[in-house]
Amino acid sequence: MTMKTRKKEKTFTKAEVTNVVLSRCKANISDVAIYKRINKMIASGTLSRVGNGQYAFDAKKRFDYSLENATALNVLSKLEDRLGRSAKYILYETTVLNAFLNHLIGRSTVIAEVERGLAEPVFWFLKEEGFDNVMLNPSENENYMYNPYDGSGVIIKTMVSKSPIDNKCHKLTIEKLVVDIVCDKTLNMFYEGGEVSHMVKDILTNYMVKFDSIRNYAKRRHGFDRFIERVPADLKGAFYD
Questions:
Q1: Whole-model pTM above 0.85?
Q2: If you average pLDDT over every residue of the chain, what do you get?
Q3: Residue 12 contacts by C-beta under 8 Å, 6 or more apart in sequence?
């Protein structure tokens, strides 16, 4: 997994950020235009919310990862051939969570999330292609019984519609991951419940995230109330701005 770290910098209030925006303009602009520019800065990653009414310029880590497991790389190649690059699907390994966990995951499992209606066809396609250790929406007991320890296990599941993903690279985003850590039953099988609040705090505090995207996805999953319970008190306000 690859992490890009940014130097820690001071934080700014919304009024101070507004002044920065105004200082870069040759003429006066409306409050609406200021609001749009601030949101554009957040979306581009040059500005991030770090608390209620607090912002930082390029001060946090950028989340990224690479597939390292041979099984994951083979599955990706097969899906690109079968589904094409334009289809909506993502691949990641459970060890991507090790960046945030106290108790590291030793067994790498590949998770492939695909569009609704494709999970079962993809499952049978991979079985036919020789992937013996493929599971379709396994229960916790099935995962425990049949997921091998050699890194060849593959879980196929249906992706929640309108999930925040990087479909160009078929990757998970940090916004999806932080919500799924709380709400996703499949992901929950790979760590203890006591780790959840720690992981959420680590991500929201140390990584560049889009709070609006997190809020919208959590609501899409009908899990916003559960998610917000895990958010540190000083960051809750960022989800209501």
A1: no
A2: 88
A3: 20, 54, 55, 56, 57
